[in-house]
Amino acid sequence: MAGWSRSICGTVIIMVQGPRPERFLNSAVEARYVLRQVRRVAPDILVAAIPAPAFRKLRILARNGGWKISVVQRFGWPFFLRKLLRRRGFVVGAVLCLLVIYALSGHIWFISVSGAVVVPQEQILAVAREHGLRMGVPKSKVAQKSLERQILLAIDRLAWVNVEVSGTLATIRVAEKEIPEAALTQPGDVVARCDGVVQEIVTLYGIPVVAPGEVVTAGQLLISGLLPVQDKAYHDKAAKGEPPYIRAHGVVTARVWHEAVAEAGLLVRHEVPTGKSSRRLHWQWGAHQGVWGAEADFTHYRERTVSWQPGWGSWRLPLRIIWETRHEVQVNAVEVNADEATANALSAAWEQVQAQLPPGAVVDKPAHIQMETVEDSAEAYVRVHIVVEAIEDIHQFQPITESAAYIAQPTVSRSSRLQPIPGP
Amino acid sequence: MVVRRTWHSLKEQFVRCLELPQDTLLDLPKVTLIGARQLQVENHRGVLEYNTHKIRINTTQGELVVDGARLRITGIFLQEMVIDGRINSVGFIR
User: Fold this and answer.
1) Rounded CA gap, A24 and A48, in Å?
2) B47 CA: distance to closest CA in chain A (Å)
3) Which of A32, A136, A294, B37 lies 20 to 30 Å from A90 when distance is taken between CA atoms?
4) Do B73 and A30 touch (CB under 8 A)?
5) How do the pLDDT tens digits run along chain A, 424 residues long?
6) What is the pLDDT of residue A195?
7) Residue ranges per domain, chain B?
8) Does pLDDT of B82 surpass 80?
9) Which of B47, B52, B77 sits opposite A22 (nearest CB)?
10) What pLDDT does residue A294 have?
11) Where do the CATH 3.30.70.2280 domains begin and end in chain A?
C-alpha cells in the first residue's frame, strides 16, 4: 500500500502485550494483514503500524490468542476528519474562507497600464473604466476584445491595445502612433535666444533680416519665415488658404557675454549634532488638523518629516499623518583662509558660467575676472565676478500664430539688399 | 514420507534440467542483503524469535538467523519480510 493510500485509509500504531508476541505477528500475517515498523520494545511488548480498518479484526485475533492489544497513535485522513467534525466552527470558517478567496479571485483588483509614454495613463484607465474595466469587476464581465477596440477608438494616439487578465491583475498594453512632431513642419521665424553681436548668418530657409556685426537683443527677429508677395509660393499658399509662411531655419553665430557672480564666506559654519532630538506627530483629517507632542526648544536643528496616507491602490483615506523629527545641532564657525575662500568663490562662479554656456559654444578669449573682499556688519566674504565672451549659435525657432500669419508683408529695409531664399 | 522425498527430488531435477527459477517452483527462501543495513526475505514461514539484536525466521530450508543491532521489521507480509538495522550475520540452522 502506497504512502498516500495509507494516509487516506488511516494508520494506527498498536501495542501488543503478552507472552511470545512473535506468534501474534505470525497469526496476523497468516490472516493476510500487513504490519509495518514492527519494534520489540520489551520482551513481552511489540509495537507495529497497521491499516486502521484492520484493527478490529486484529483485536479479535489478539484476544483469541491471549494478547492484549491497544492503540498508541493514530494517523491519516479519517482521524483528521473526525477531529475536524468535532470543531464545526473551524470547518465552517475554513469553508467560508475558501469560498471568499474563490469569489474574490474571480474579480479584478489591480489594473496596470504599460507602454504609454505620451498618452497619460489616467486617460487610458478612464476609458477602460467607462467600458467596464474597473477595480472589483468580475473577470467574466470584462470583454477583452471589445474593450481593446473601445480604447483604440477613444484615444486616437494609440496604434495597438492589448488587454490581458492574469489572476486578479488586468494589464493594458498599448503602443502609441509615431506622429511626426508638429514643430518640425510648423511655420515660423528664427529669433535671437539672447543678446549678442552677430558674427555670421547662414540661412537655410527664410529671409535673413540681420547682418554680421549687428547688435541683437533676445527675441529679436533674425530670419523671417514670411514669404515675399512676389514669390510664387506666396500665391500658392494663399490659393490653398494657408498662411504665407514657411518654417525659417538657419544658423546665426554671435558673440555673447556670460557673467556670473559667486561669494564665499571667510567663516564656514559646521553643524554638529548634540544627540538631542524630539518628535511630533501631525494629523490631518479633511479640514481638521492637530499636533501631538510639544515643540522642541532648539535654537539650531535639522528637521526630517515622514508623511503617510493610508489607502488601497490609488484610493486614499482623507487622513494624513506626518512624523516630524528634529535633531538639535550645534553650529560651529571656522575661519577660512582668504585664498581658500577665493578659490571656492571662483570655482562656484565658473560652475555658473559653464551652466550658462550652450553645447558647441567656443570661448576664444580669456575670461575677465574681478575679485573683491566685502566686509559688512554680519560677516566678511570674498566676491568673484566673471565675464566670459563666447561664440555660439543664438538661433531660436519661434512659431507664428494664426492671426500673425495674415498680417501684411513687412517692409524689410535692412534686408532688402539680401536675396530671399524660398522655402521647400 | 519417502514418497514426498522422491517427489521433491524429481521436482528438483526437473527444475535444474529446465533452468527454471528455483525459489518459485521449489518454494525456497530468497534472501537479499543490501549492504549491512537491510535484509529482504521472501518465502518465509513466520517469525520464531524477534528482539533488537536477533531475529529467527522459519523457512522451508530451516531457521534463518539474523544477528545484529537495532533490528526492526519494517514490513511483514504473507510471503515477504523486510528487516532494517545493523546486520552482523545471516545464516541458516538446519
Assistant:
1) 11
2) 6
3) A136
4) no
5) 567 777 788 999 999 999 888 899 999 999 989 899 999 888 889 999 999 989 999 999 999 989 999 999 998 898 988 888 888 898 899 999 999 999 889 999 999 999 988 899 999 999 999 998 988 899 988 888 999 999 999 998 899 999 999 989 999 999 998 876 655 678 889 999 999 999 999 998 889 999 999 999 999 999 998 888 888 888 888 888 888 888 898 999 999 999 999 988 888 788 899 999 999 999 988 788 899 988 888 889 999 999 998 888 778 888 889 999 999 999 888 888 888 888 988 999 999 998 988 888 888 788 888 888 887 766 788 889 999 999 999 999 888 865 555 554 444 444 444 444 444 4
6) 92
7) 29-93
8) yes
9) B47
10) 85
11) 3-81
Architecture of domain A3-81: 2-Layer Sandwich (3.30)
**Which of these CATH numbers, 3.30.1360.170, 3.30.470.20, 2.60.40.2000, 2.30.130.110, describes B29-93?**
2.60.40.2000
Cβ neighbours of B76 in A, within 8 Å: 25, 29, 34-36, 38
Chain A residues inside the 8 Å CB shell of B46: 22, 25-26, 29-30
| The residue type at A366 | P
**C-alpha pair distances (Å), A275 with each of A271, A299, A361:** 12, 14, 50
Q: Where in chain A is the domain with CATH 3.10.20.310?
A: 110-176
Please give the backbone phi and psi of residue A343, each rounded to the nearest 5 degrees, phi first.
-60, -40
Sequence length of chain B is 94
In sequence order, what are the residues at sequence separation of 6 or more whose Cβ sits closer than 8 angstroms to the Cβ of residue A318? A285, A286
A67 φ, ψ to 5°? -100, 155
Which residues of chain B lie closer than 8 angstroms to A37, CB-CB?
Answer: 72-75
Sequence-distant (6+) residues with CB within 8 A of A404 are none
Distance CA B2, CA B15 (A): 20
pLDDT value at residue A424: 40
CA distance A167 to chain B (A): 47
Chain A residue whose CA is closest to B77: A34
Q: Which amino acid is at A86?
A: R
Q: Which fold has domain A110-176?
A: Ubiquitin-like (UB roll) (3.10.20)
User: Under an 8 A CB cutoff, do A26 and B72 touch?
Assistant: no
The secondary element (H helix, E strand) that includes residue A104 is helix A88-104
Question: Chain A partners of B47 at a C-beta cutoff of 8 Å?
Answer: 22, 25-26
Contacts of A30 in chain B (CB under 8 A): 46, 78
Q: For residue A164, which of A119, A122, A111 has the smallest C-alpha distance?
A: A111
- A275, A326 contact by CB (below 8 A): no
Of A29, A40, A43, the CB nearest to B76: A29
Strands A110-114 and A169-176: parallel
Question: Nearest CA to CA, how far is A20 from chain B (Å)?
Answer: 8
Cβ contact A36–B52 (<8 Å): no
